[in-house]
Design brief:
By secondary structure, this protein is α+β, with helices and mostly antiparallel strands. It has 14 helices and 31 strands. The chain is globular and about 90 Å long.
Length: about 650
């Protein structure tokens, strides 16, 4: 019944998304009419408009005077048995209602229900990877037990549990929630979590999590489909993880009881390795023949603590190499860097160095905001997925992809963790940032420029039937369509903007956004308005076509008038999206001249631009564009003498 109901809800939500898309596009096209300069204000849905009217958001891009945000603090005890893959946990939660609303419900995310037989999901699961989902044994609100069998009080919809409260939660109050649960970790792993072999596990989405209740949409009741990502509330975590005594645990937060779980020699290398600032084996291959962890009882309880984070994940492994180093930042801050991997790994031996270089890059170059957490762990699992202070990465035996994945996942520390964006609604905001921010360090470490990959990938796909405006909810997209929008198209937009503003101005605006919305929940409008505010310019001519409208980037050479020593080249804007004009004139004497205008040359809505050029010898060929600038139809981007 649950699976069938969920599928019905999923179908209904897709219909709503489609109708929203049509309404959105109609409204957007009516208001903008293809002219950049006609739009004084950005399109807003009703929910977003109401937030500005209520004063929780401000048109200068800052949180409004009436902005509020709820909070969830967790104390969790969990035991994991690798031989059976059974996880059993209990938690004490303090939920703080800072909203002006009286809450009649609590919504919990039980993400492991995605693996149940009959559950609706966008990615196939092998039959052996299916489970019974989350088994809720106990739930109590302010000490009062909840009858979990009472379907009038408790509804499980997809991966959400919606609890009707006997006593609503008034504004400015706290509520105590206690629960006990268990589930079987899937016997296989997807690209985010699961079982990698009989002694390697990455455990995420594992605890009953109170959903976000925000000033725009109220409760987030999104069901996890295995593809679209998350929207999480901030809080503190005090987590004790019990495993057999020959297993290690690496997690979100800082290890509180290292002296109780690490053998003395390992503890010494762990402690001194952080301060050393160079890569050190906490556990090396030579240490695997003797105990690495305390053996005083059959199990060890590893305790990790983290404050003001939106999620918690952990990895469990036996006989793992453990490297450590650190990065020193301003104000004497030190960030510990951990890399944990199997002895057979071919590429993880350099991961600690790559992670350290990434942290330094983000802290000092782009976004040039100090890394917000005291540590980061790169665990060798599969593919790539981010969590606060720990990432789950595979290895590709390809230097370009290995570096790309590590730097990309660590970049997510800023979005969606330091700044809590809604990934479910706007996947492009965090994925586009995480694709774009590390490009320079990726180029330095692997000699590959991912801007070219994004521009060419988007160029081939622009204008297709799945080329949606980025502001359409990400749940309307799936598969390669979702990936292209979230990674390529959005990062190309960031590149076009940075190219127009210059490095300093772009970085200044991005820093302001991160600082204004640290540990808060911004929308894309808050990003757009922050840039406008910091620049003291209306950049809606850029935001509207790149984020709100259908259309493609497409320029062409229309006509060329050349005289002795000078000439004029007309470049026509055929597509809606503003991009820079870059011309290369190849001269008869073998030399060449580059002429350029930034994307803002189109800010007034001009249909064409006449480019004046001077040259020392007769041009033989003129080429429009570059490998960094997408053009959906490059067939009209070249002029040749005599043609």
């Amino acid at each position: 019944m649950t699976g069938g109901f969920t599928r019905s809800m999923d179908h209904a939500m897709r219909q709503i998304a489609f109708l929203t898309l049509i309404t959105f596009v109609a409204a957007t096209n009516l208001s903008i009419s293809g002219q950049y300069g006609d739009q004084d204000e950005l399109y807003k849905t009703n929910e977003v408009s109401e937030a500005y009217a209520k004063g929780t958001r401000s048109l200068d891009g800052r949180p409004g005077d009436k902005y509020w945000q709820n909070r969830t603090d967790y104390t969790i005890n969990v035991a994991f048995e690798p031989s059976t893959r059974l996880l059993e946990g209990s938690s004490a939660i303090t939920y703080t209602n800072n909203s002006p609303d009286t809450l009649k419900h609590l919504v919990f995310h039980l993400y492991q229900d995605k693996n149940k037989y009959g559950a609706a999901r966008n990615k196939a699961i092998p039959k052996k990877g299916l489970t019974d989902g989350v088994q809720m044994q106990e739930l109590a609100i302010d000490g009062n037990p909840v009858d979990l069998a009472d379907q009038k009080l408790v509804q499980r919809m997809g991966t959400a549990l919606i609890l009707q409260l006997d006593e609503p939660i008034p504004p400015s109050s706290t509520t105590a929630v206690e629960c006990r649960w268990s589930f079987e970790l899937p016997s296989v792993a997807d690209d985010r979590m699961g079982t990698y072999d009989e002694s390697t596990f990455f455990i995420a989405y594992w605890y009953p999590k109170i959903a976000v209740y925000d000033d725009i949409y109220g409760w987030d009741v999104s069901s996890y489909d295995g593809e679209h990502e998350f929207y999480n509330e901030y809080g503190s975590f005090d987590v004790e993880i019990t495993v057999p005594n020959n297993y290690g645990v690496w997690a979100t937060g800082e290890l509180v009881n290292a002296n109780q779980v690490l053998q003395p020699a390992v503890l010494n290398r762990y402690t001194t390795g952080i301060a050393a600032g160079k890569v050190t084996n906490v556990i090396g291959a030579k240490d695997l023949d003797s105990p690495q962890y305390v053996q005083s009882s059959p199990v060890n309880a590893w305790r990790y603590g983290a404050d003001n984070v939106p999620d918690f994940a952990f990895a469990v492994g036996k006989d793992k190499i453990w490297d450590i180093t650190s990065v020193s930042l301003a104000n004497d801050r030190v960030v510990a860097i951990h890399a944990v991997y199997d002895t057979s790994s071919a590429t993880f031996k350099t991961v600690a160095e790559e992670a350290a270089a990434s942290v330094k890059h983000f802290s000092e170059r782009l976004p040039a905001v100090p890394f917000p957490y005291p540590q980061i762990t790169v665990f060798n699992g599969s593919l790539g997925m981010e969590f606060p202070m720990i990432v789950n990465d595979g290895e590709f035996n390809n230097r370009v992809m290995d570096v790309y994945v590590h730097a990309h996942e660590i970049a997510h520390t800023y979005l969606p963790f330091m700044v809590g964006v809604n990934e479910t609604m706007n996947a492009w905001l965090d994925e586009g940032f995480a694709y774009y921010a590390p490009i320079e360090i990726q180029r330095e470490l692997s000699d590959f420029d991912h801007r070219i990959r994004a521009a060419k990938g988007y160029e081939k796909w622009a204008g297709s039937r799945y080329d949606y405006p980025l502001m359409i909810p990400s749940t309307a997209s799936t598969g390669g369509n979702l990936q292209m929008l979230s990674y390529y198209k959005s990062s190309v937009a960031f590149e076009m903007l940075r190219d127009d503003l210059g490095d300093d101005q772009f970085t200044k605006c991005l820093q302001a956004f991160l600082r204004r919305w640290e540990s808060k929940h911004p929308t894309p409008h808050d990003l757009f308005y922050t840039f406008n505010d910091v620049l003291d310019k209306n950049y809606n001519w850029f935001w509207s076509p790149w984020f709100f409208e259908f259309g493609v980037p497409d320029l062409s050479i229309d006509k060329v008038e050349l005289k002795d020593g000078s000439g004029q080249i007309r470049v026509v804007r055929k597509g809606l999206k503003p991009v820079p004009i870059q011309l290369r004139l190849d001269l008869e004497n073998g030399q060449h001249i580059d002429v350029r205008e930034p994307a803002s040359v189109w800010s007034s809505g001009a249909e064409y631009v006449d480019m004046s050029v001077n040259y020392s010898d007769k041009p033989q060929q003129i080429t429009l564009g570059s490998k960094f600038i997408p053009d959906s139809d490059p067939s009209d981007n070249m002029w040749k003498a005599g043609s």
